[in-house]
């Protein structure tokens, strides 16, 4: 039985559930992280918004951004004992409409009509690789990042039972979204060992390009590790949610 964490971007699964992934892999459970929005964008698909983000992350091009972020993800995943699968959907910052117009100059916005086919394409990508007894963990989309919303919509088209993890870091900034995003769900606390917590806190530091832009709770290694500690302390684990079956 594989546990597969559906990660919109190259950091979401480890940030949100790295301690649980570490404990699972240490006990022999096969764990995989499938990341969707990490395709290589053509250099002409770099908007002023994307250029600004590249600069904040310390990269000079779309190619370098994707290549280095994939490397960070492989390093973090190796630390928590997960296999990675990187798909070629473009991050919202690189997507454009049929007329060539940039679709997004803000990531916390509802999906544009031009992205209406994306959930079905995501579902098809998952479905073609899915085994009947796989356990799928999807992000709730707390924070309402457009790519998190689209991946959740895609996962929900599968007709496969889902567990949901809570999006870190967004739960720190928009806790009021947890209740509406998890309406009708049951919650199970999955304990995480001290060893799992320690690995989690180390593994998130592999995403060194991202920490500076993850907001006040994560923008230095020290604050990032303290925030993971406080997130764990709420229940000495993490909560996974699911709909009544």
How would you briefly describe this protein structure?
With 245 residues, the chain is an alpha/beta fold. It has helices at residues 12-26, 48-57, 62-80, 118-127, 146-156, 170-173, 178-181, 194-203, 221-233; strands at residues 3-7, 31-35, 83-86, 135-139, 162-165, 185-191, 237-243. It has a single domain (3-42, 67-87, 115-243), classed as Rossmann fold (3-Layer(aba) Sandwich).
Give structural notes.
Helix 3 packs antiparallel against helix 8 and helix 8 (194-203) packs antiparallel against helix 9. The protein has a single domain (3-42, 67-87, 115-243), classed as Rossmann fold, CATH 3.40.50.10320. Helix content is 39%, strand content 15%. The model has no long low-confidence stretch (mean pLDDT 96). Strand 1 (3-7), helix 1 (12-26) and strand 2 form a beta-alpha-beta unit. With 245 residues, it is of the alpha/beta class. The strands form two sheets. A five-stranded parallel beta sheet has the order 3-2-1-4-5, with helices on both faces. A two-stranded antiparallel sheet has the order 6-7.
């Amino acid at each position: 039985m594989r546990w597969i964490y559906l990660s919109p971007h190259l950091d979401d699964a480890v940030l949100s559930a790295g301690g649980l992934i570490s404990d699972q892999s240490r006990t022999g459970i096969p764990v995989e992280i499938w990341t969707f929005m990490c395709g290589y964008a053509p250099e002409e698909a770099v908007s002023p918004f994307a250029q600004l983000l590249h600069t904040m992350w310390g990269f000079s091009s779309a190619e370098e951004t994707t290549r280095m972020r994939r490397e960070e993800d492989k390093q973090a995943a190796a630390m928590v004992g997960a296999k990675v699968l990187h798909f070629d959907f473009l991050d919202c910052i690189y997507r454009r409409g049929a007329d060539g117009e940039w679709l997004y100059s803000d990531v916390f916005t509802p999906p544009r009509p031009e992205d209406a086919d994306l959930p079905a394409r995501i579902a098809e990508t998952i479905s073609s690789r899915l085994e009947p007894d796989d356990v799928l963990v999807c992000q709730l989309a707390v924070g309402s990042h457009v790519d998190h919303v689209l991946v959740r919509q895609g996962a929900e088209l599968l007709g496969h039972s889902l567990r949901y993890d809570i999006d870190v870091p967004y739960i720190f900034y928009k806790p009021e979204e947890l209740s509406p995003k998890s309406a009708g769900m049951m919650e199970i606390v999955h304990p995480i060992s001290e060893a799992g917590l320690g690995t989690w806190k180390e593994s998130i530091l592999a995403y060194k390009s991202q920490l500076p832009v993850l907001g006040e709770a994560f923008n230095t290694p020290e604050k990032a590790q303290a925030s993971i500690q406080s997130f764990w302390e709420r229940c000495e684990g993490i909560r996974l949610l699911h709909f009544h079956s």
